[in-house]
Design a protein that fits this description.
Blueprint lengths: L14 E4 L15 H6 L1 H7 L3 E4 L27 H13 L3 E6 L9 H8 L11 E2 L19 E4 L4 E4 L14 H17 L3 E4 L26 H4 L5 H13 L5 E5 L5 H8 L8 E3 L8 E2 L2 E5 L4 H14 L7 E2 L9 H4 L7 H13 L4 E5 L20 H12 L4 H11 L36 H6 L4 H14 L1 H5 L1 E5 L6 E8 L2 E8 L19 E5 L20 E6 L1
Parallel strand pairs: 1-2, 1-13, 2-3, 3-7, 7-8, 8-9, 12-13
Antiparallel strand pairs: 4-6, 5-6, 10-11, 14-15, 15-16, 16-18, 17-18
Helix pairs in contact: 5-7, 11-15, 12-13
């Protein structure tokens, strides 16, 4: 597609996220790798995606599944070599696809040479690459908590001081107040772009600016440690830091940059993605995937109220309509499987997986498909904590039981919401290890791979895979899908997710039944203009129905209509 300053290529693109450990094992050691990814590129080409986002493949001690990096300019031997990365880049480019890397620079591994030197002495040249503070009354310097439970500080015996880690103790936070740190990050980004990467997904990038004094958060009623976002994220120099990175690494390059920003609001996202600033192409926000979190956090899941979801997503659609750009996603490596979480992974698995996709992909923004989502893969729901590998899950289990929680309820929450639900191996076929490996998989394969797999999906013209393929094709064919104005319909309806997209006289109407009941379409058919055409649906419209394309929607049925 011709590129103009007002119409960057990534606006009409669909991104596919690969979690390399679980995508395809090329050497039989039970862990996915780059040669395995290369072997499966035709699957992505058939699906029609434009960009591959590769989760971290760098050298790492693997405390947080590769998000603890010990060398930013290499490839972990479990994944292959830089030559393999070059072959992957070339294989994607030859098929007309692009490759973006995961840039994880809020923190490093504690085995990174910078941290090894930093902890060696209070006078180390790299000491101020990290946040070191003396103790306070024999304990941590403040009451900040880690995202993964417990305090965000660990005392290091070598120098007798504490270092800050907003994630695991083996992920010390980089001190972006230090200009030398920022310069090294710029060097890393340029190195990968010079090698042929087409951009970055930037992990928790809004964590890099913190209130410099690192003050205590409000005293918690139950004591202990808290996640005090007002001090630890979206700090006072965030725009400055992102602007520097843009100017030093991205300026003059045709790249996609996605900033993962937990806790960001619409106005902040608009400022970051406004083309006038151009700090990032788009952000990953978390508001819509936090709506089913209960008082006890993510593992305390509560039923989703569709009206709240529509209000949230609609506010982001309208808030970034004329300034900035939205990312669109249900799934990623940090979220449980959407069809199990928001849909019905039993009787209506296929229909609800399609309807979730329809709802998302017809919105304004860049859609992201997480590996296996296009097959309607479900949560694994492991019942034994020994089956899990995720550090967040294991820490939650340990801390919850230590606090006196009932193990059965703890395990029920983990089965619904653990990140490992997204990390089970890709289901390629019905063979014993789902075609993922000839060895023993690092994480157990979901037993339902005998039914849910790529081989079966490609052979079935009515599969979830082919529905995704058709949705992606519509984005390439119809400018209204990319650029149309979003307008919500029926915001108070408890089961119907409906909206229009309008551009140059074309009106696209999306009608989606998010329930297991048949629901009447109580919208005026005029919303779609005269004589709407059914472009895509999860079901065949009943023949002879007097309402035509506005006939009642069957359980988890959705329709995409177009009037010109």
């Amino acid at each position: 597609m011709p590129q103009t300053p007002g119409d960057p290529w990534w606006k009409s693109s669909v991104v596919y996220q690969i979690y390399p450990s679980s995508f395809q094992d090329g050497d039989g050691d039970g862990v996915g790798d780059l040669p395995g990814v290369i072997d499966r590129l035709d699957h992505l080409h058939t699906l029609g995606v434009d960009v591959v986002w590769l989760s971290p493949v760098y050298p790492s001690p693997w405390d947080d599944n590769g998000y603890d990096i010990s060398d930013y300019l290499g490839i972990h031997p479990r994944f292959g070599t830089l030559a393999d990365w070059d072959r992957l880049r070339d294989g994607l480019h030859e098929r007309g696809m692009r490759l973006i890397m995961d840039l994880v620079v809020n923190h490093t591994s504690d085995e990174h040479p910078w941290f090894a030197d930093s902890r060696a002495s209070r006078d180390s040249a790299h000491r101020d690459f990290y946040f070191w503070r003396p103790d306070r009354e024999g304990g941590p310097p403040n009451n900040w908590g880690s995202v993964f439970s417990g305090p965000a500080w660990t005392r290091d015996d070598a120098t007798g001081e504490y270092y800050l880690h907003l994630f695991t103790r083996r992920q010390p936070d980089l001190n972006w107040e230090n200009p030398r740190v920022r310069a090294r990050v710029h060097d890393i980004a340029r190195w990968w772009l010079d090698r042929g990467a087409d951009g970055f997904r930037m992990d928790v990038i809004n964590f890099v600016s913190k209130v410099p004094e690192l003050p205590d958060g409000p005293v918690l009623s139950e004591g202990g440690y808290g996640l005090f976002a007002e001090y630890s994220i979206n700090g006072p120099r965030l725009h400055e830091f992102l602007g520097e990175l843009r100017d030093a690494a991205f300026a003059g390059r045709d790249v996609l940059t996605v900033g993962e920003m937990p806790g960001v609001n619409v106005e902040q996202a608009a400022a970051h993605t406004d083309p006038v600033n151009g700090e990032v192409s788009m952000v990953f926000q978390f508001e819509h995937v936090d709506l089913d979190h209960g008082p006890g956090g993510k593992f305390d899941q509560v039923p989703l109220d569709l009206r709240r979801l529509k209000e949230s997503l609609g506010r982001w659609q309208l808030g970034l309509a004329d300034r900035g750009w939205n990312s669109l996603y249900w799934n990623n490596h940090d979220q449980p499987r959407a069809v199990s979480r928001f849909g019905d992974d039993g009787k209506y698995r296929v229909a609800s997986a399609k309807t979730l996709a329809t709802t998302l992909h017809m919105m304004k923004g860049t859609p992201y498909v997480y590996q296996g989502e296009e097959l309607g893969m479900t949560n694994a729901g492991f019942s034994d904590i020994a089956e899990y590998r995720d550090v967040e899950t294991l820490n939650h289990h340990r801390h919850a039981l230590a606090a006196g929680a009932d193990e059965e309820s703890v395990m029920a929450g983990i089965a619904r919401m653990s990140r490992d639900n997204a990390r089970t191996p890709m289901q390629w076929d019905a063979s014993p290890n789902a075609g993922f490996t000839t060895g023993t998989p690092w994480l157990a394969v979901n037993p339902n791979h005998t039914e849910i797999n790529a081989e079966a999906a490609l052979a079935d013209p009515d599969s979830v895979f082919h529905h995704y393929r058709r949705l992606i094709a519509l984005r390439k064919e119809l400018p209204v899908v990319v650029h149309g104005v979003y307008a919500p319909l029926l915001p108070d309806h408890p089961a119907l997710f409906a909206y229009t997209r309008t551009l140059d006289g074309a009106v696209l109407t999306v009608l989606a039944n998010w329930s297991a009941d048949t629901v009447a379409v109580d919208a005026d058919p005029a919303v779609a203009g005269p004589g709407p055409e059914l472009l895509l649906g999860t079901h065949t419209v009943p023949e002879g129905a007097p309402e035509g394309v506005f006939a009642p929607l069957r359980p988890w049925e959705s329709r995409v209509l177009l009037s010109r």
